[in-house]
Amino acid sequence: MKKNNIFHALPPRVSKNKERIFEIDYLRGFSVILMVLYHFCFDLHALFRDFFTFPDCATVPEFIYKLNELGTAIWTGQEYNDLFIFLQHFFSGLFMFICGISCCFSKNNFKRGIQLTYVSVIMTILLDAVSVIAQTQLGIDVNIHIYLGILHSLAIGILIYALVSHFSDSYYVTFIASIALFIMTITITDFDMPTIYSLTGSPQDYFTYKQPSIVIPNFHLLLLGRAWDGDDYFFPLHTATLVMMGATFGKIVYAKRKQLWPKKLISPVGKGIAFLGRHALESYVVHQVAAFLILYLIVAPFGAELGGNGNLRCSS
Predict the structure, then answer these.
(1) Which of 233, 253, 273 is the C-terminal boundary of a domain?
(2) With left for phi above 0 and alpha for psi between -120 and 50, is residue 159 left, alpha or beta?
């Protein structure tokens, strides 16, 4: 039996001079923009309160208080809560789905998955190290811990797709795999993430630099979706489901590996968003550092110093 006839495989992958597909880059960039805006609202709420201290209250301009109030209202206010939960699931789900489409065009998804695993693990180690140093050496209340975030889960999803596609590139097989993963996901979690418990047991213990000693021996609970911990958590099977669904869509809609969006309708703004989409990983890694630097440049002229206690405060 010929695999190409029986299993409806995609055309051979071309590694050189391959054409970018605008709409995929655009949607990926759009999801990155939503992520950055989502996190920046948190930064307005938290960075002014937990990172900066002003030496003299008289030097703090009114607009800084307004920015902090805006971030706090958006991030913690009940009127925005449902909207932000929707946006979080929307842009993360879209990003995973687009990742699945991109898998169809990759020559080596095992390599992509392993590389992304390295990046996510290094990010986890660096964030834990920064948190420990900031708390113990600098007296800054930095508690950022990501043990199984979106990059970790995407790496797992890509590796699962690579394993399935190793045996068959059929969109039938990919679709069946996505349904199987979906059934496993709802069986384990019922899609009700708030009911699964934290490894630390109490909210005040969520964000301490002692967490790795708790997380490491119980990491299998994170993988199985029976616990969550850290500042960013995505259930790997849920992520893998969306990756496989995206791959199924890509194999059907982009069977010829050609752009569908007319080139004449691409605007300069669209090109900019697509450029961001082509560099989504870099954007994810650096966007919070960039946000910190932007906010620091805003407050530094007014004498702000590093350090905070959970309130927008002055030292005098």
Answers:
(1) 253
(2) alpha
**CA geometry: angle at 241 spanning 237 and 244, to 5°?**
130
Structure-token match 């870099």, residue found = 282
Where is the domain boundary, 206, 223, 253?
253
* pLDDT of 205 above 50: no
Which residues does 42 contact at the CB level (< 8 Å), separation at least 6?
71, 75
How many residues does this entry show for the chain?
316
Domain-located, residue 11:
no
23 and 127 in a single domain? The answer is no
Is the residue at 13 inside a domain?
A: no
User: 208 and 155 in one domain?
Assistant: yes
Strands 227-228 and 197-198: parallel
As a whole number of angstroms, the distance between CA 100 and CA 241 comes to 9
Rounded to the nearest 5°, which phi and psi values hold at 68?
A: -65, -40
Q: Which domain holds residue 283?
A: 19-105+255-316
- Render pLDDT for 116-152 as a digit per residue (tens, 0 to 9): 999 999 988 888 888 777 767 666 666 777 888 889 9
19-69 pLDDT, tens digit each: 789 999 999 999 999 888 888 888 887 776 667 777 766 677 788 888 878
Residue 7 has pLDDT above 90, yes or no: no
> Do 284 and 201 fall into the same domain?
no
DSSP string, 10-40: PPPP--SSPPP-HHHHHHHHHHHHHHHHHHH
Helix (H, G, I), strand (E, B) or coil at 2: coil
Residue 174 CB coordination number (10 Å): 27
The strand pairing partners of 305, in sequence order, are 53
